[in-house]
Amino acid sequence: MPNIQLATSLFSFALEWNARQYTLDSLLAETQRRGLGPGLEIIGFQSLPRFPHLSETEVSDVRRLMDRYGFEPACLDANVDVRIRRDRMMSVDETVDYLLPQILLGARLGFPVVRVQMTAKPEVLRRLVGPAEKAGVSLGMELHTPYDMFHPAVIALRELYEEIDSPALGFIPDFGTSMRAIPDALLHSFREVGVTDVMIAITRVIWQSDAPIPEKFGALRERVGALGATPAQIGRLNMAFSMNGRQPVDAWREIVPRTVHLHGKFYGFDDAGDEPAIDYAGILKVFHDGGFRGYVSSEYEGTAFTDAFTGFEMVEKHHALCRRILNELGG
Amino acid sequence: MGPLDAHILQDDALACTRTGYTLAFRSHWYRSLPMSCMDIALTIDGVDIPRERLSVEANGRRFPADMLLKQTDHCLFIQDAARLHIDHPPAPKGQPVAVEFRLDLYIPYILIGPEAQPLLASTTIRKTFTCP
Question: A89, A118, A296, B24: which has the highest count of C-beta atoms within 10 A?
Fold first, then answer.
């Protein structure tokens, strides 16, 4: 069996799912029919009604579906919703109480990894590592932009991981953290709200700079604001910074041993089937050479701004791209 | 905001009742959110409907729109609709009703700025319905 296997995150099918074209059963059936396994990633709050409080019957129903369509449970995505109260942040106790049922459900559904998010403070992880070990799941911290390897919170988290040194604490690098360009499809979508070519060119220049992300938001507001950009237009342009990180690919090398899953984020493809905005060959080589064993999950992000493609056609292309690169790397 | 906005109000979202209207709405994020992360505003034929005349029904519960903030313990499943009850004199049968509905989503895991405020994903839908 190859070390790196392919998986599909149902996140990719947001258009189809929100349009209610599919049930979980028919969605898994179609994903299997197109050969988009063997791994499966589910976002609890997207795919499962009453998440995370599922009855035993509901849990066996989901397990039976994954089994029937031949999927290997790869990752269940928990959400660390620390601001469900708009007046204050959840306390550590409340965050633990919010996450624990999600983690235990991940284990009950047979997932080896439960994705968590950087809104979980180190104190929260410290409290959850015991229950996760006992349940037999790894907590995978998603490293999604702006949380690149140079972010102070990620540096602190790596220190915590070294200190606790548990197999139940790992990372899920998101490829959107390490991009070489803002995707053209995203830039084109800005034109819908009247953003001009000059504003797009300015956004590109600021994105390419090494300034910290908060400074980039400020510079963008100032420069396109001077050209008459509306708050709505600036809001859309901000997506370029909030979705697309530019960490060098090699920076991930050091965390490969603690990587438990990969989020293969993507936006679109050129005629050769490559993702022009993300160096897939370079990124997969880092994890392959570092000895990563696990899944790379297809996460199509385009539904945030375009309905020009179906999630299925995009995931098919993504699987083809990853398969080609992994074959070249030797499995 | 994006392509998922298309599902907020279906063509048959508005129903006319004896005391007003009901409006079925869905959320435009990719996942279910606690109802406390939502806020709404509504005009009908250009008239702002005061919040005290709005109540929300979801998951078998009905509560005043002002109590949305308190609904931290249940989510609106992303494929389900909530129902807004609107206490406002309904239009006569067959007459068009212009609805402007704003749905604000405060994304509870994407925190912005030094105050760590939840990201606001707001969408306004304008649609004209007819009372059958």
Answer: A296
